Amino acid sequence: MPHDFTLAPTLFQLFEERFPGSRWDILDATGTEPRLCFGRLPEDPPSPDLLAAATGPPPLIIERGDGPAQFQLDLGLDFPGRRSVDAVWPLGEGVWALASLGAERLGELQRNRAWIGALLAELSRRQECGTATSRDFMGILHHPDSPLVDLLEQVERVAGSETPVFLEGESGVGKELFARALHRLSDRREGAIVAQNGGALTDSLIESELFGHSRGSFTGAREERVGLFELAHGGSFFLDEVGDLSPMLQVRLLRVLQEKSIRRVGENRLRPVDFRLISATHRDMRKKIEAGEFREDLWFRLSGFRLRIPPLRERPMDIPLLAESFLAEGRASTRPRMRRLSPGAAALMQSYGWPGNVRELQNEIGRVLALHGEHPVLERWMLSDHLFDGVDRQSPVRLTGLSLQDAQEDLERRMIRRALIRFQGNRSASARELGLSRQGLLKKLKRLELEQVARD
Q1: CA end-to-end span of the chain, whole Å?
Q2: Which range in 52-61, 291-300, 424-433 is most confidently predicted, on average pLDDT?
Q3: Radius of gyration of the chain (CA)
Q4: Which residues of 85-107 are buried (b: 16+ CB within 10 A; e: fewer)?
Q5: Of the residues 30, 72, 371, 430, which has the maximum number of CB atoms within 10 A of its CB?
Q6: SS3 category, 142
């Protein structure tokens, strides 16, 4: 049975913050060769041949004495360039949690044995129950408790129908992802899905873009062009921001849906088109119809199935999963060190309203990676000021998951960073603004690990 310790990174982050300087990993020796998984792996993880096979269950905890650790002697575990393993807990047959702490932390570890053991036991129980912290449905990442669960069930039910689907949702919620999921689940999956933004179509471009043209049909038409409707033949056509269509475009689209045929510019013959229409908008269509800005007969054609995609603020449990997914994408392209969120950063991100939804979250992660990608953890203070401002407008204080000392340091980091930005990195001016001496500011920059930020 494969082990799925999806909660391990978060749990180990908690241990590493409680025991500064420690490092935690999981060793899975159930296969032919032991392997490390999850946790904070070294830059160059040890190869399997460096990990000796284990025999028999280990004791509950093994501590380092004056000599080499008993665990190191039994399993031959020693990470290159790191301290040897100091402690181990069994998490199941052939699976153990490992800790590298150093002699100065062993007494504290011993005093907290029951606390750590209880958390690790809960991790093991969740694994046995098959509990997952994230799900991926056709590229749509979400939490098991997310409102998207019910929505995605509806997507599966309507995907096999030929009835047009209308997706409602704010800008940036990922409507095109849902449209592509509908296409891949449909009987038309072997055909193409063609996407077009209705707001980007002008009346002067509609003929050529949507319907195509023949060679020589107008000045500049040097070759034949296949329109988007023809490209979607046998597949799906996704028309985003349909609420922005001009009156002329609305008439032309309605005719195509009624007659299921198009005529290229410069041709007399009709060409059949057969596609499943998926449309979307962020606008209130009922208001546009009442204002006479959108044809009601076209609306009836578009809205066979209406699916509402909830904004990010209505599904805060998805935010850490999406953020870490964007971190992983950033590592694949730019290779920064940052791998995960701190609890304080996750709490702040879940408290913010995200008016730009998933697109805004993705841009924020990109900004953090560009400025602070050399750090292994995305901390609260690295986030944009407008996230703090947005949360402050919603409630007096949102410092979930922070101790008094951490909250104080968080405030210091934010104030120092704002001063440095305001005075373009001038430390003397920033110090005067903060009521500090220049030397006092330099000490705080070093203590709060903001020296790189000050240089940037």
Answers
A1: 48
A2: 291-300
A3: 29
A4: bbbbbbbeeebbbbbbbeeebbe
A5: 430
A6: strand
